[in-house]
Structures are given as C-alpha cells and as structure tokens.
Amino acid sequence: MTSGKSPEQPWQEAAQEFQKNLIAQWTQAAQAFPGAVQAGTQGSADPFAAFKSFMPQSGSANPFGMAMPNMGAGMPNMASMGDLFSKAAGQKVSFDPSKMLEIQNTYLKEVAGLWNQGLDTKPVNDRRFSADAWASNPVAAFSAAAYLLNARTLMSMADAVEGDAKTKTRVRFAVQQWIDASAPSNFLAFNADAQKKAIETKGESIAKGMANLLHDMKQGHVSMTDESVFEVGKNVATTEGAVVFENELFQLIEYKPLTAKVYERPFLLVPPCINKFYILDLQPANSVIRFCVDQGHRTFVVSWRNPDESLAKKSWDNYIEDAVIKAIGVTRDITGAETVNALGFCVGGTMLSNALAVLAARGEEPVNCATFLTTLIDFTDTGILDVFIDENFVKMREMQFAQGGLMPGRDLATTFSFLRPNDLVWNYVVGNYLKGESPPPFDLLYWNSDATNLPGPYYAWYLRQTYLENNLVKPGKTEVCGEKIDFRQVKLPVYIYGSREDHIVPIGGAYASTQVFPGKKRFVMGASGHIAGVINPPAAGKRSHWIAPADQFPADVNEWIDSATEHKGSWWTDWAAWLKPQAGKQIAAPKTYGKGKQYAAIEPAPGRYVKARG
Asked: Disulfide check for 593: which of 137, 242, 346, 544 has CB 3.0–4.6 Å away?
C-alpha cells in the first residue's frame, strides 16, 4: 500500500514548517506587548495575537499565511480598528475624531484617484518597487501603489491614536511591522521583479531559491551573508595573540605587540556579552583591536563564553565580579601596572560602568580612564526598544528565569533585526528565496548571525534595573556585588562615543552619560548606526564625526549637536589622540604572553570560547 502522499508533499510540509518558524521569529517582538503577554499568561497558545490582529482576514492568501491588503474593502470599520490597535497597545485606545475624519476623506480621495489611473499607475518612489519590472508591469505597479496607499493610511491612523508617548510608539511599531511584512514585494505571486527573473532564467532562480530555503531551514535562520566563506580564527578574528587566563565566564586574550615599545599602562577591552568579541576584530583593515596594538597599546580583550546550561543560574553580579573586575585584576597582575585603561562597547560599557562603581564603593581605583562606545548607562532614552518593556513583560521574564535558564541568542538577534525589518529581514527573504540570489560575503553580517545566549537571571535583572526602572543613575538605589551604585564616585576621565543613526542606543541615550560622570570627559558623535558607526577605520576615509567645544555638556543632546563641528573621516584618530596621554610612558614590548606559570599561554587567539556556536 502507498501512503497517498505525492513526492512533493514532504517538501511542502518542510517548507511550511520553516515558514511558520520565520513568522514566529518575525512576531517574537509581540511577546513584549502587554496584550500578548496577558494572553499568554491566560493559557493562550498564541503569544503573537497582537500582531496577527493587524492582518486583514479577507483577500488572497500568501505563502506565509498572511493576507494581502484588500483594496476593495474601503476604509475599515473604526470600532474594529480601535479594537485591533488596543490589542497592540495592551490597553483601550481611542482616536482623535477630527484626525480620523481627515484620514478617511484623504483615503477615499486617493482611492478614487488610484482607481481612475487604473493600469496607467505611475511607478512609486520606494526602493522595494524600484526595479524596471515593476514599472513595466501595470498590474504590479498598481498593486504596489495600492499597498503604499493602505500603508500610509494605517500609519496615519496610528498617529491619530490618543494616549501617552509609549502607547503611541507601541501602536506605530506594531502597525509598521505588519506593513513591512505584507509588502507585495515579499511574495512571488506579486513580485514582478522576481517573476521577470524566473522567466529570464527559465525557472533557475526559483530552483536556487528553493535550495536557499532548504539551506536556511537546516541552519534555522535566514542567511544575510555567505557564512561558508568565513571561519573564526582563519579570516575573521585573526589578530595574533594568546589566551592567558580563563574561567567559566570568559577568556582573557593578550595580543602580540606590533611595535618595539608599548605604553606602560595596558588597555583592556570589554565587548558586549550578547555577541562575540570579534566585532572588534573582523578583518585586519577594520579591526579595532589591531588598531590599538598598532598604536602601541599592550592590548587585552575579554572573550565571553557562549553560555550553556552550566551557566543557566549566573547573575549580573557574577558577570561584574567574576568577569569584568576579574579581567581588570588579571590584566594588572600580568603587566605589573598599577592601573589600566579600559573600553566598554554597548552592554560591555554598561557592565564596565557598574564594575567601576563597585570598585569605587570599595575605595579602589584600578582603572585610569574609560572609553564608552554606544553605551547606555542612563536608560531614559532607549528609542524603539522601549516598546518592549513594561512591568508585565519583566515579571514574565523574572518568573521564567526564577530557577535559572537561558535566553536564546537567536531570539535576541531576531528582536534586533526586526527593529529594521526591511533592511535586516525582508530584503534577504526576497533576495534569497524569491530571486534565488546568494547574499555576498560580508564579515559584519557573518558576525551578526553568530548569536550568543544569555543566562536568564542576568537578563531578567538587567531588564528591571535598566530598561524598566532606570535605577543605575539613581545614587544608592541599585546594589551590585554587595555595593551601592553611585556614579558620583567614579571620577576618572571618560571618552564617550555615540552614533547619530543608532537604533539600539539612540544618540540621546549615549550622550546622557555625559551627565552621569563627574570627571573630565569628551563626547564625540559619529555618522551611521550602532555597528557601522563604531567600526570605521581611518584608512577607509568614510563618514564623519562631530566634536563640540571642550567641557560644554548641556543636558539636551540637541543643544550639543547644534554647537558641534563636523570633521570628515573616522573618529578613531580623535580617540587615539585622547588615549595616548592617558597611557603613560613607553617601555620595551614584552617578548612572551602572560606572566609565569600562573598566566601562561593556554591556547592561541582567538581561543575556543568564541568558536562555540549557539
């Protein structure tokens, strides 16, 4: 007897399962919405109800189980739309009546204009629909124009919601997610450019797209780059060095000097533990670590272990005491230096700031100066990430991790990707699957795909103390490693950098650290975003940075920006000039790694911790 299944059915079932997983990743952010969290606590099996409420129930089905916007339906019923928006906000919302009347009149006018144009619709000004195939296909051009009209209308409705700033932001975020996901460019049945390529290649692009889909199904995430091209230690993270210390949380890497003399005060870098350290050492040409070594600094870097179940109960205190403070101490022991200079990047900077406050409370000052790159210490301005955080969400995480556990790195990576979904998600869905293209090799995106887990207790503590309650900047409010945090005691010189277009640490959030530290400080703003703004070597001659008059730090970042002067090129040269006088005199470079038997070289850099995949 036969099973009755056609040969295609196993493939279809596998593809549907992967597509469901992709949508689950897309809607991962919905778990942070109050309405979705409450539904989950009531036994609902669907934590994504808030986002799914925005999906029209009529219209032709698409491959991801969503429905395309229905132009023929006219304006949605205001009462039902109010219910949908309320689900996204987690509370009852209302609309400004005058704005809604204006939106309705505008919509009806634009619908009439679009229908009157019919198949003579002009090409739309949107890069998703910029290919010639869209303009030359009247049906495709019309569907794109109709989609953009519906998108504008929905966003106008989101803007008409009455409520506080957080409610408005939540609604806008949820609506924008649906709009981006439901673009006709995301689906083969509507994408004129992908259809044209399929015809020109006689179906080869579709076959390649299926192969790409199968590959991504196997690896469990959408490919942003050709990951097969890269290997940690072979063509990324290649700066020469050795692991000179390790414990269960991190390895400490010392790098081989590239100069005959080095500065007597060593330099310790603390990267974020939610990612691998080699964002600071991608390629020789764009490596922050190699730049530091080239400048004559005896350089050490914390390489975080990718947590497994053995670290499932580790807390924020463990990471501060047994990692950051321990790394400072080991660096001093190895070099014999009384003090070190330190750098913290993103969450690594937040952790470094806590370590400095703990040490200050103990009457210790082992760090001479500190650099903070795209770091939040005052969490007043957290940008779009604020939509994820409220009391219900944090309590849910605290209950989830009360007995330990791991926050999967893939979930964190997905959340950050969907802060910019068109650039970091749907762009690759279209290219990889609909057009059968292979994404080009790109070291930064390879690193971005190399996810790292977090211990649950660490993650839950961090959410409450920073994003929810912003306790770090309240003197004596937060206790870390048995000490009250008070940044008024952290009086060392600091260099603070923020990226102008950063969607993870907004420029206002990075700048807020100037109001936290009482000592000498310098603030510099760079162009671009969270990563590209930081990883900007001088030799590339790209982008700009801005510097304002020294020692002038108004409370409002916009006042600082108004007073700042643009300088072409990388901020690295300004930072190097600031760091040089902090590094002390020059001494002969060491000939060996570590110190004696206690800190003998364990293995070559980049070490084995960084190679553990999540």
From this structure: 242
Q: Which helix (H) or strand (E) holds 388?
A: none
483: which strand partners?
Answer: 480
Greater model confidence, 111 or 513: 513
Tokens 């192969």 belong to residue: 211
Residues 340-345 have a mean pLDDT of 98
Q: Which amino acid, residue 59?
A: G
Contact 522, 497 (CB under 8 A): no
Please give the pLDDT value at position 451. Answer: 84
Report yes or no: 352 and 376 within 8 Å, Cβ to Cβ: no
Q: Are strands 241-246 and 250-255 parallel, antiparallel or unpaired?
A: antiparallel
**Which residues are identified as catalytic?**
346
Note every long-range contact of 589-592, with CB atoms under 8 Å and residues 24 or more positions apart, other chains counting. Answer: 589/257, 589/259, 589/260, 589/261, 589/262, 589/298, 590/257, 590/262, 590/298
Kindly report whether the peptide bond that precedes residue 138 is cis, defined as omega within 30 degrees of 0.
no
**What does pTM read for this prediction?**
0.84
Q: Report the C-alpha gap between 12 and 417 in whole angstroms.
A: 27
d(CA 222, CA 429): 7
| Residues 443-476: tens digit of each pLDDT | 988 898 888 999 999 999 999 999 999 999 999 9
| DSSP states along 497-558 | EEETT-SSS-HHHHHGGGGT--S-EEEEEESS-TTTTTS--GGG---EEEE-STT---SSHH
Task: State the alpha helices, DSSP H only, in 340-425.
Answer: 347-361, 391-400, 409-417, 421
Which tokens go with 392? 């219900």
Q: What is residue 424's predicted lDDT score, i.e. its pLDDT?
A: 78
